[in-house]
Amino acid sequence: MPLSIQVEHVAKRYGATTVLDDVSLTVASGQMIGLVGANGTGKTTLLRLVAGLARPTRGSISLGGQNLADDWAVLPVSVGVLFEPPGLLPNLTGLDNLLMLAAVRGQLKSAAVRGWMEKVGLDPLSRRRVGHYSQGMKKRLGLAQALMESPDVLLLDEPTNGLDPDGVAQLATWLAEAQRGGAAIILAGHDLAQMSRICGEVWRMTDGRLVPADISLVVPGQAEEGGGSSVDRGNQGHEGCVT
Amino acid sequence: MIRGGFGTSLRLVLGGWRWFPLLAVVAGNAAAGLINVGPLRLHGGANAWDPLVFGGITVQTFALLTAPAFLIGTSRDMNRSWEHLLCLRLRNRRSWWGTDILGLGAAAGLYGLAIGAGTFGLGLAELPFAFTWSALAQSRLAVGSTRLLVTLHSTPPWTVSLEMLGLLALGLWLLAVLARAATLLMKSQWSALALIWVVVLGQYVLVQMGLASIFPWGPGDQFVYLTHFATDGGGIPFSWTVEYGLALTLVGAVVGMAIAQRREWPI
Q1: pLDDT tens-digit profile of A103-126?
Q2: Residue B264: which of A55, A88, A104 has the nearest Cβ?
Q3: Chain B 79-98, residues with CB within 8 Å of chain A CB atoms
Q4: CB count in 10 Å sphere of residue A106
Q5: A54:B264 CB<8 A
Q6: N or C, which end of chain B is more exposed by having fewer CB within 10 Å?
């Protein structure tokens, strides 16, 4: 069942440090939004809160009507996540990592898991352990584990880090497929140009607050080419929407 | 989903390099069984049960080999980032913790069975098989205790062996659950494992120094079957140890559950 994400007046504090302050956000089923911002502005924290991996100090988060505060021990249904680092077991092969995770829900057959390995450009027959993977390979494997069970909610932190331009283009294709399937998607990253190229809507995190990003600051043509520079200026209160 | 989570938890504590500690424990206990029974064989009348019952599972092998190898072999860093991927798929922190505790129990049972099979198998290769106790076992020479002699006369060897291995598995499960719960608090699995092993080792050292009465209820040597019967003194009753082991395992699991269901990632 397609799920929407509703974040209402959420704050998160660690001791005296306020990481998020009165953040509200709605992501409908089939919608993909991007979050940009400098390190430490709260992007990853917001994704972890939406995934149910951390508890907000104030406010509420609902996924498909399930309020995460109702029973903190219960995690939201059907969420795929990718954080930095991807968190895979270094002493196992990539395929073994995916098979062990897929075995929990039992939705995917072994052949489907191998298919995902191939889809992200990794050899399912390789005996190479994840600890010996390059950063890009780890990222691809992390994306495979996030996407392979077709989750209703996708939360990807820095999904393009370590990917080559072809990988970024493939990622955009996989995300578009997930979006067509009804997934609600949030991406977080630093690069406004790249994010605006992939997402329909981009927001900026600044000092724990969420404001619409001004994508008019992206140099014309940069968005289409996926240029690598990020824009750090301005919170113009101007919603960017690239379709 | 719980079954899938249990299977994944079991693979996490038994897969890959984790077979090496198990093999070391099986080989060590089997060798200890033959070595300890060896001198007694000179008096004649030994059979395949003797290495398992009298030689293999001792306070020495438990404290110095079996317990630390099991703790290391089944170690799992509950604080690492892979765990949240597993927890999200289980959709519940309670299931995440519960499947791990059950996985540890299954692993402890497997260790018990493997130790029993290895020690009995090696005994079988060296000594004749019989359905009854050997003449050696029925003499005070091997037994050294009227209490154990009475037990042996009234119980078949396979029953005593199963009780022995079951008690061992319970002890290992208890230690691993306590270590796991400590891992949640200490944020380092190795510190938690070391803490639990130091407790077992400390109790062993006290027993060797003749100071067992200082720490008789510790979660260590009472899980070695012979300690309940090998002396005629008023030691801890076997049934008490079983109840204590189950109760303390439950306490460790419940405390761990209380911590686990408040778990946030990253730590």
Answers
A1: 999 999 999 999 999 999 999 999
A2: A55
A3: 80-82, 84-94
A4: 13
A5: yes
A6: C
Rounded to the nearest angstrom, the minimum Cα separation between A179 and chain B is: 21
B208-217 pLDDT tens trace:
888 877 887 8
The whole-angstrom separation of Cα A111 and Cα A92 is 18
Between chains, do B91 and A81 touch, taking CB under 8 Å as contact? no
Nearest to A7 by CA among A42, A59, A48, A54: A59
Q: Which residue in this structure is represented by tokens 């049934």?
A: B239
- Contact partners, residue B241, CB within 8 Å, separation at least 6: B167, B222, B223, B228
| Cβ atoms B172, B66 nearer than 8 A | yes
- DSSP 8-state secondary structure symbol assigned to residue A206: E
Strands A5-14 and A58-63, sheet pairing: antiparallel
Q: Where do the H-state alpha helices sit in B42-133?
A: 49-50, 59-61, 67-73, 82-90, 93-126
Widest distance between CA atoms in chain A: 50
**Could you tell me if A47 lies within 8 Å of chain B, comparing CB atoms?**
no
With tokens 């438990």, the residue in question is B62
In the predicted model, is pLDDT for residue A214 greater than 80?
A: no
Contacts of B85 in chain A (CB under 8 A): 81, 87-88, 101, 145
ipTM of predicted complex: 0.86
